[in-house]
Amino acid sequence: MSEARISWIGGPVLRAVSQDSFTIQEAILVGPRELPGEVIKLNGKEIIAQVFEDTTGLEPGELISGTGTPLSVRLGPGLLGHIFDGLLRPLKLNEDPFMEKGVSKRDEVVCGFTPGLAAEDAVHGGAILGQCQLKGITSAVLIPPGVSGTLSWIAPKGDYSDTECIARVRDPGGAEQTLAMSHPWPVRIPRPVRKRLTPDRPMITGQRVLDTLFPIAMGSRAALPGGFGTGKTILQEALAKWCDADIIVYVGCGERGNEMAEVLDEFPGLEDPSTGKLLMDRTVIIANTSNMPVAAREASIYTAITVAEYFRDQGLQVALMADSTSRWAEALREVSGRLEELPAEGGYPAYLSARLAEFYERAARVQTLSGDEGSVTIIGAVSPPAGDFSEPVTTHTKRFVRCFWALDRDMAQARFYPAIHPLRSYSSDAGALAHWWQGHGNPDWANHRRRLLTLLEEQAQLERMARIVGRESLPASQQLTLLCAELVNEGILRQSSFSLVDRYCSPKRQTAMLLAVMDFIQLAEKAVQAGASPAEIAKLPLLRRLHRLGEEFGEDQIKRLELLRRQLEYEVESLAGGSSRES
Amino acid sequence: MLFLERKVRVGLNHAVEVISPDGQTRIGRVAALDEQTIVVEVLGSTTGLGLSGTLVRLDDSPLRMPVGPGLMGRVFNSVGRPLDGGPAIVAEQHRPVDGRALNPAARALPRDFIETSISTIDLMNSLVRGQKLPIFSGGGLPHDRLATEIAQRARLREGVSGGFSVVFVGIGISHDSAETFRLAMADSGALEHTVMFLNRADEPSAQRLLTPRFALTAAEYLAFEQNQHVLVVMTDMTNYCEALREVSASHGEIPSRKGYPGYMYSDLASLFERAGCVARRQGTITQLPILSMPGDDIGHPIPDLTGYITEGQIVLGRDLDRRGIYPPVQVLPSLSRLMDAGTGTGFTHPDHPALANQLFASYARAMSVRVLESVMGEQGLSSRDKAYLEFARVFENDLVKQEQGRTLEQSMQLGWQILHSLPTAELTRLSAKQIEHYLGGRKDD
Hints:
The structure holds two protein chains of two kinds. In chain A, 34% of the residues lie in helices and 24% in strands.
């Protein structure tokens, strides 16, 4: 064990002098309370390190001991359904509601183990050794990557502690290694996979504006930028609740404590719409709220992605919600400032873009070491200062993501949620996903999507024009375009996360709603060509119902939507008929 | 900053007392340490300090504040010393002023609706107990009056467990604003439930960084040890941020946007995150910070970073104020993030959220019509657009403007009444049932 003595300390950064050797990114324990830290720089006999907890009370001369391994977290049973800090130490409800430093140690988890392999089986890293059961949640026990050989012994079915030896592996050289249900993994190193696959199916989010206009593929990556009050957190939470991933890793990075309380309050009472299981049982929460130490904020993002990869390696589809990556970048900036590094744009260190790229690159759809298919999808919120998307974190993030869901302040102020601006957002995944929709009830999905986007684009142009000449002076066809665009906005894109009926929208219902609106647009266009006036169409009582499609036709009323379409045909056509007869 | 030779053992961030040759004491803290030196940040003026004759007394713990039941009704300076000529506090505890972070797992979700008697807040941006809701204001706007009224009138709708108290924190404010608040609280007989912390504009800026910390320490004691529901009014946070910039610059730190330090977000969060409800404790801390937006610019780093930390904001508008509308709350940019947790079925009224939503949507629409009107004049507008203009006028003059307090029921009734000026087809945020019930029996155009 290498040791060093503190020579200088200020804020979360310290310098120490040592005769022993340390390595870059080695995890260290600082002072008598053994505060966790990490080596950032080595300079001759001097080491520079960051401390993940409040350094109040530390003084020069105190001891630092190296652990010999990079900053690691222990991956195993007992993660799902719980809340952890940025270093994956459990946050528990104690008598004292405030955080204590240096004492929150990981507890051992005792759970049931069922072996899936037998002695003398050949094994390799990433293979599934068996299953473990904990409070009704079954998950796979993985052999840590890097281990391979023959299984010389495996424990029989029974209850074990997660750090207890449950199997021994003899490697080709004859050396034995012991395995437990959990194993440590360094957070800054991506877990290995057999190969990376191209994303090919959508992650259904249950949000119409995303699934229909800006879909994201399983294993892809999206950024969610927006000024304060535009609904980033609500949308992240809605995605965490309703998307069809198997596992959700939700990391609150430098955000509000009450948001974590909200997730903890709400999730245990909600069911996953696709499996009917409790949402909390598929969720891991990692919280480094804005008042918790800043260095641990920087680590929390890596902890979260490592946890996500661990579940991916069990052959699961994982979604990682990071709220917010800007706070993580600011933590980088703060530590960089304390190291007196030369700042680049906006005071951020020059390696900001490299770090962002590394992070987003860990999202992937892969073939795991055990041959299964798994994926990690990253959805990162970005909080640009003053809502200005030209700032460094947003611009760099934009280079590495495939979906860009831009939140708009004006829409949010009119309480139009989700406030995703249809003209400033994009999805590079849309092309690859059209065939999925073809097989799931909407062969024309790509055309419909294109039609909606052009309609919204036209709306923006016409509204500019209407501002000069007045709405009434536009030709009938253009007035109709405005009417239809408004219907698309109100009827399809607007969706309240707080409405019990509309907070989740299945692909089937989305398709039914989309078809109803498409029918209306087509019929109305025909009617206008036949001489009906847009004003008449605007007065149709049916239109009000179409505007409230999401609210009025829940998941159990998709059939009624069919009826509505027939009624639509009748009403709009009779209007056209009436007008043409008059003329 | 003082640089001392390190001959004694002292820990980082520990408190120090600096005594100048003339016997004046200032407090400070240990900012950095190496083998030979102790760097002390003096939280006060360094005038009169010399290299010889200055005495530094080192403490073995971070800055602490003595707290006890005698806090109520007292006035303190920035560093927790009595300003009202009264005796020192009989200390039941000494609490570190920086506080400790609340364990996110120990937080309870704020859900208790607080009736402030102001329609634009109660009806449209509801405040709940344990929330931090700042008022974004500007120089010359009546934010002090608004905060005072809220502090005087705020009440829970149903039976309250635990007492109610107010902590007023004046950060870099003038003597008369502090006095106005004190008199107003005295008038309503609430002074004995009020603790005041005053840092006047002419006091050293480094002390400004301590004022809210001392005050919040007192608030935490009252809430979590004395089971009080504490409302903390902090004014003016802009002065706090200016002091932060000044102190950071004097440390030679690399500045971020507009010269403010890169850690301003974390620093503000360490104050605002001290609001909240805690599981298994009765008391709560609700924060109502006031800040004046420099140049009325909501994109300025101070309101911007605040908005990212707090749970919404109430924005005051100069044009409303000029038109004599009090309180001049700009409804659209205002927001309460916890509104959904504390309103609706089981909390206020089942139709409250839908009504608020509809008013927001219609008013936003009306504002875009106003832009249109400014280009084309009212004659160029369609009848629908004219209805929106009328709606906006009534909304501002009848709902936003109020002379007296209103109960939530009164505010809601007004809200429904105002919606009468719009055609039913426009009210897409309301269900057919709600329209039938509240707006029924009317003829549509």
